[in-house]
Amino acid sequence: MAQLDKLLQQIVTKGARSLRIEPNQPPFLEFSGGGSVPLLPQALPPTMLEHITQEVIPAEYKEAWSQQGQLAFEYALGGVSYRITMERSAIGNRLKAEPKDGIAPLGGIQEIKFVDEEPGRTSPPSSPAIAVLPPTPAITLEHTPSLVPATPFQSAPAQLAATSSIPPVAVDSIFAGPPAPRELNPLALVLFTALLERKGSDIHCTCDENPIFRVNGELEDFRECGPLGKSQLLELMYSLATPDAWGKFQSRSDADFAFGFELGGCRLRVNFFQDRVGPGFVARVIPNEIPDPDRLGLPEPVRQLALLAKGLVLVTGPTGSGKSTTLAAIIDLANQQRMDHIVTIEDPIEFVHPRKKCLINQREVHTHTESFKSGLRAALREDPDIVLVGEMRDLETIAIALETAVTGHLVFGTLHTSSAVGTIDRIVDQFPADRQQQIRVMMADALKAVVSQILLKKIGGGRVAALESLFITPAISNLMREGKVFQIPSAMQVGRAYGQRLMNDVLMDMIQDKKVTAMDAYLKCPDKESFIQTIKRAGINFDPRAGQTGA
């Protein structure tokens, strides 16, 4: 059902003469006696009005509408025929709808007329023969509804009732209440199905390019589809987005949200963007089922983090290294083994956790809370036992997370750092110099573990995560307090009994177990010089700089 249909129905229901929709104003009904009443408490932005009008224009006439900017046609709905006139102005589209005499067949556009300066031409070249309406004058705004500003204790419907003799209309539309689900674009169904069949992790759609899948870390063209045009992409993207996400994309040229692909049994983390060529988007697959720690290969010390009573646990790594997946597995272990309250703050919500033993509240940034820091501050008033912060982006978020951990809560968070030890320096360096010693002391008391991970191509197909794990012992805590972070790697080398693992040692084990190649490990490791020395000590002649690729 088109969004305009819900507004058109009110013309007959309320006995109005016409419906008018103007940019940056609420849609309103006009009555024969000269009165008018808004249908919605809020104005419609030009971007939303554009999509309302686009929904009712036949596809074969959209290009002509785009070029000429004026159009009149007859539209039938529920046995009533309406004359709809549209005009594009400098601030956005205008629309007027009036019921015609007589009853028209149900549904569809009956007659179309293009208004053109060229005399004698009423339809675009090569268009099919159609019945032409009598000439319709250009739209002029004859009356603008006046809205009295709301008092603090007066709702929008109450305002309308107080300022008009005609009762306000309750319109069930996407502009008020929960957003109505949109029909998935057929092209999106083809692309997402193909992505899942190839076991891909991401899809990239860019204007005038073939769709591209990321499979086992490598990009692959989906040539069966062919290059995507701007109009194809916009229609596809519009079918995916919530009204709020689409509004953000129109105003800011980018948007993040999660999309439930029920037919594929998964969700997608979606990013819309605009580049020099046109619109585009990237979507990442998020399985509906919570990841299995055994399948992920999480070592036992990392699994035990789910049972900590309090403290700060950080999972770090570059973008796309599987941080969210690891955290979801740890949270699920807590959900299975504890009876606590878990609050997650994510952007957007990725893995959906069903209630097992724990009560779980998942909040999305920009949807349920303004930002990570505001959501984290609010979580302190929500009686949490465990708090998950999707990303610790700024100084204030890090500071609140530290305070939350110090006050007796278990906090999980992520950072984009390349090593466990580097994470400590990164956090301390976020703060002004006069606060850094205080933060070192807080970190020494609050930090319990740092897990740093990277994803590598697995021999035989697929990908595997390499996890560097730093567990804070009394000795390491003392080094942090004294600012001697550079000595922590040496303490980790002698602390394997505590679960300490340096990335080079993990990669070395994976090479010897024939899980990854030495070259892939070399390309992904953060400290390449140290990695070469580690692998040579194991008796493997490997140094790409000298032309050695392993023996």
Gist of the model:
With 551 residues, the chain is α+β, with helices and mostly antiparallel strands.
Strand order of the largest sheet: 3-2-1-6-5-4-7
* Main sheet: strands, sense, barrel: 7 strands, antiparallel
Q: C-alpha Rg, in Å?
A: 30 Å
Task: Quote the beta fraction.
Answer: 15-25%
Structural write-up:
- The protein is an alpha+beta fold and 551 residues long.
- The protein folds into three domains: 3-163, Beta-Lactamase, CATH 3.30.450; 186-287, Beta-Lactamase (2-Layer Sandwich), CATH 3.30.450.90; 296-501, P-loop containing nucleotide triphosphate hydrolases (Rossmann fold).
- The protein is built from 19 helices and 22 strands.
- The strands form four sheets. The chain has a seven-stranded antiparallel β-sheet. It has a seven-stranded mixed β-sheet with strand order 16-15-17-18-14-19-20, sandwiched between helices. The chain has a six-stranded antiparallel β-sheet with strand order 10-9-8-13-12-11.
- Strand 17, helix 12 and strand 18 (410-415) form a beta-alpha-beta unit.
- Helix 12 (395-406) crosses helix 14, helix 13 (420-429) packs across helix 14 and helix 14 runs antiparallel to helix 15.
- The chain is elongated.
- It starts with a helix and ends with a strand.
